Amino acid sequence: MPFKQQKTFRHFQVFAITITLFAAGGLTLLAMDSESKTSAKLLNEEATQATDEAGSAEEEFVPPTKAELRRKLNRIQYDVTQNAATEPAFRNAYWNNKKKGEYHCIVCDKPLFKSDTKFKSGTGWPSFFEPIEKDAVGYETDYKMFFPRTEVHCLRCKAHLGHVFDDGPAPTGKRYCMNSASMKFIEANSRKEK
Ligand SMILES: [Zn+2]
User: Fold this and answer.
1) Distance 43 CA to ligand 1 centre (A)
2) CA 170–ligand 1 middle distance (angstroms)
3) Per residue in 45-97, pLDDT tens?
4) pLDDT-based confidence at residue 194 (cuts at 50, 70, 90)
5) Surface-to-core class of residue 103, CB atoms within 10 Å of its CB (0-12 exposed, 13-18 middle, 19+ buried)
6) For 1-47, what is the HEC assignment?
7) Which residues form a coiled coil (predicted)?
8) What are phi and psi of 112, to 5 degrees?
9) Which domain range does residue 90 map to?
10) Distance separating the N- and C-terminal Cα atoms of the chain
11) CA of 104 to the centre of ligand 1 (A)
12) Best exposed site among 18, 124, 139, 187 by fewest CB in 10 Å?
């Protein structure tokens, strides 16, 4: 092949490889997107079913106003629960909390997680393999990162809690990666003693 043709051919090869890589990347993102959407949808269906079975007591909840929330919550609690911020890893209250008890919503006190479903994830955030009840939390697909994630919020007051991933331990395989700032820990028996 003459030199000029060889060069053109090489350019074409580079071009073709680039296009292929872009297409593969795009398809992967599309697949992840639909997987994440399906995941949020399925989890929400389970939560709705559980709510229907539990009755309509939840409907009486009156959400607090922004002013009330500003008074009740500190800055990080407000940013995480109301604006879906993420607290720093390891510099939060419960990532390494090994005490027995329940984690409740910081805004509305709804029980969300139990200490016996908490596991050491190494992420620096409190991690659980399942919520206390299926209707404790709701889900949404979140596009804040370049790949879609499944956002988790309190089903009663809609406070943002964190995200759920599919790399958790048995029996569920789920990793609920939560913000300590969204929750308050109620140590076992501590409410009875008071
Ligand atoms: Zn709540």
Assistant:
1) 18
2) 27
3) 888 887 777 655 556 889 999 999 999 999 999 999 999 999 999 999 999 99
4) very low
5) buried
6) CCHHHHHHHHHHHHHHHHHHHHHHHHHHHHHHHHHHHHHHHHHHHHH
7) none
8) -115, -45
9) 3-193
10) 89
11) 8
12) 18
pLDDT at 193 over 80: no
Contact 150, 140 (CB under 8 A): yes
Is 177 in the active site?
A: yes
Q: Cα(192) to centroid of ligand 1, in Å?
A: 22
Q: The CATH number of the domain where 43 resides is what?
A: 2.170.150.20
Encoding tokens for residue 191?
A: 């409410």
pLDDT at 37: 78
Q: Which amino acid is at 45?
A: E
How far is the centre of ligand 1, averaged over its atoms, from the C-alpha of 106 (Å)? Answer: 7
DSSP string covering 84-139: ---PPSSSSSSTT---SEEEEETTT--EEEEGGGEE--SSSS-EESS-SSGGGEEE
Single out the catalytic residue among 105, 154, 157, 177.
177
- Among 194, 186, 193, 192, which residue's Cα sits nearest to residue 99? 186
3-state secondary structure of 51: helix
Q: In the chain, how many domains are there? A: 1
Looking at every residue in the chain, the average pLDDT score rounds to 88
